[in-house]
Amino acid sequence: MSMISVTEALQAILPKIPGKGVEKIPIGDSLGRVLAEDIIARRPNPPLDNSAMDGYALLAEDIQSASPENPVPLKVREEIPAGVEAKTTLRSGDAMRIMTGAPVPKGANAVIMQEDTKRDGDTVLVMDKAEVGENIRLAGEDVKTGEVVIHKGTIILPSHVGMMAVVGRSNIFVSQRPSVGILSTGDEIVDLDEVPHGPCIYNSNGYMLAAQIRSAGGIPNYLGIAKDKEEDLMEKFHWALQCDVVVSSGGVSVGDYDLVKASLKKMGQDMVFWKVAMKPGKPLAFGTIADKPIFGLPGNPVSSFVSFEQFVRPSLRKMMNCNQLYNKTIQARLTRSVKKKPGRLHFLSSVVDWKDGEFSVTPAMEQGSGILKSAMNANGLMVFPLEASSLSEGDTVSVQLLE
Ligand code: AMP
Ligand code: MG
Question: Labelling 227: which of 40, 87, 309, 361 has CA 20 to 30 A away?
Fold first, then answer.
């Protein structure tokens, strides 16, 4: 079996990922969901020209000569609180008391802030000049009627929720979340409520994958642990196929008890087993059974973690018709030299910092596929290219940002 690149694996996987349907939800529940419609403004924001300050609406021309030594008196004709429109049109020589957010009266072309005035009965003394348009927020300066304010496929952030409210949308269409069955495998793997004995290992992958699935917008279904026996594996995989997607960990390598391959092969003709030219995480099983995507990830914790980020997260996002499939990648300056053998692309658990106006990246000293602590302390995966064998301090490298 020859090795394929990460890109080739993704090119084979993504076309086989089916899309989910849509559902309607209140915007208050939409954080982290993928928008399934364009959000179009039905009215401008702000709806009218309005004041950015508490002060006085007036004509800029009337106060050209105003200064503290030479205040200009204007007659205060009306008072305009926010949410109320002036009853009259402002004329030269007049002013109107206006509050922040209140509509600017017809005839006025500037607002002078309260701090630059002195009030004396129904006269205001203006002690500074103003430009035309000063302290006026124009109708539609944020959003224009008919404008697409949020595009279909966007992952919804708090500011998107705010914008949906600005344009008056209470319910929106989002993509349904895929349900993802998680199956751990291995005779040595035990669940957290079991008393650990000798060589047994807690099922950390199962719980970590559940968290990754949730952070990618999926609904994790924890299905426990299968023994390294074909019958048990096949039975549990069958069960897992009630979900939209299945993710397993372990049993895809070349060991004597790596029976996930054999079991999946029996269950589906469409399964492929790759050696991906990456580290950590070389072995990978992928295919569809009854049109449901199955990912057989390697068992080592960091391999499972990194393989999920490369292959499963983009697939789950594709299922939700998300317009951003991949984690963001930045360019950063390497803070120490690193070496490796050419032939595989390495993902190094790393810390990204902002230093002297640019990103810096520091790969953890320990990078083993069992060193979960390095991955835990990382906020990025530095990409050490396939054919490269050494990189020096000061080199510019790509880093995938982790959620
Ligand atoms: P495997 O790919 O099944 O040979 O597993 C590779 C390594 O990962 C072994 O040391 C396993 O004990 C470990 N491993 C497999 N599955 C899990 C799991 N669910 N949680 C933690 N470690 C695991
Ligand atoms: Mg195993």
Answer: 309
Tell me the fold of 6-21+177-319. Answer: Molybdenum Cofactor Biosythetic Enzyme; Chain A (3.40.980)
Q: What is the pLDDT of residues 370-398, one digit of tens each?
A: 999 999 999 999 999 999 999 999 999 99
Q: Which ligand has the nearest atom to the CA of 210?
A: 1
Q: Which two tokens stand for residue 384?
A: 């050490």
- For 239-277, give one letter per residue: b (16+ CB within 10 A) or e: bbbebbbbbbbbbbbeeeebbbbebbeebbeebebbbbb
Looking at CATH, the fold of the domain delimited by 329-401 is given as Beta-clip (2.40.340)
* Distance of CA 183 from the midpoint of ligand 1 (Å): 12
**98 alpha carbon to ligand 1 midpoint, in Å?**
69
Which residues crowd ion ligand 2, with CB under 5 Å? Answer: 186, 250-251, 299
What are the tens digits of pLDDT across the range 174-189?
999 999 999 999 999 9
The fold of 23-44+144-175 is Molybdopterin biosynthesis moea protein, domain 2 (3.90.105)
